[in-house]
Fold this sequence. Notes:
By secondary structure, the chain is an alpha+beta fold.
Amino acid sequence: MKSQLDHIREVALKDLENLRSLAELEAARVRALGRSSELSQFLRSLKERAEGERRELGELANRLRGELERQFDGAKEKLEDVAYAALEKLDVTAPALRSRRGHIHPLAQAQDDANAIFASMGFRILEGPEVETEWANFDALNTPPDHPARGMQDTFWLQGMEHLMRTHTSPMQVRFMQAHQPPFRIIVPGRVYRNEATDATHEFQFHQIEGLMVARAGEGAPSMANLKGVMEHFYQRFFRDPNIEVRFNASYFPFVEPGVEVYIKGSSGKLAGKWLEVAGAGMVHQNVFERVGYVRGEMQGFAFGMALERIVMLKYKIDDIRLFNGGDLRFLRQF
Length: 335
Ligand code: FA5
């Protein structure tokens, strides 16, 4: 019986040698001294023994228990000392870490700026659905079925091919005119989608700002000259350069006639010296007016569409469009 006690001591002391944490210590303590430990069972079994033996073994077992308890207490103190020593490396006098404040994404900031500039010119700001009908995105905009933009390679078609992710914000021209009579001026900012490979200047999802100003045809109706004035005012304020010049180059979009590409040239800084393309625009095609229910020839107006990413890239000299959605905080924190 004594040898059983020796064995219990040996096992417990060996356990104590290998402890690395207070949790391990507690587990070892329960193994050695807990209610179902061999030592506790030993003590419980003593009541079946003769009086003399019981007293002798009981004393030995209780002494062992006391010894082990002291050993475990000592080991606990040592481990606690190690833990406190680690805590002391914490310099409570060091200046506190400043928590960083988040801020608005550069594209959202630019959109807010653009909205404010157009609002100051009397434009209403609207949004439209990103899932569009083929009719509003193409047919109503005078884009024939064999137009290359309608191909699978350029457009994300949804099941059944009657709906798609809008490829531009122009379908909102159609939706708005179906529901409203001129005169009006609106802008429609929003996301658009194109099924194309991404590179430094192309994303499959980007943002456009559509503009539309229409009135009854005749004197004072929105003209190409007005379009140029609106463009000039917008870009001068957006880029904070009052000397920005605007030039139109003849171009083709099925829903305008004549159609133009809008170029700007700045006087100083990042935009100085070279002509840069910033938007598509033109006079709304009479076929479009007819499709939305207006009488051919009764209305006159202009439309424009620009990519938000493009003008923000010009403003801040960003050379890769993929940075906007790349999630790299080093990039985003610069704004
Ligand atoms: C249009 O989307 C016409 N709806 C614009 C318009 C509106 C013309 C009203 C006339 C009247 P376009 O496909 O060219 O046009 O696109 C407009 C601008 O979007 C381009 O100038 C270009 O800067 C930008 N863009 C085109 N594809 C991408 C792309 N994958 N990633 C980023 N920007 C793009």
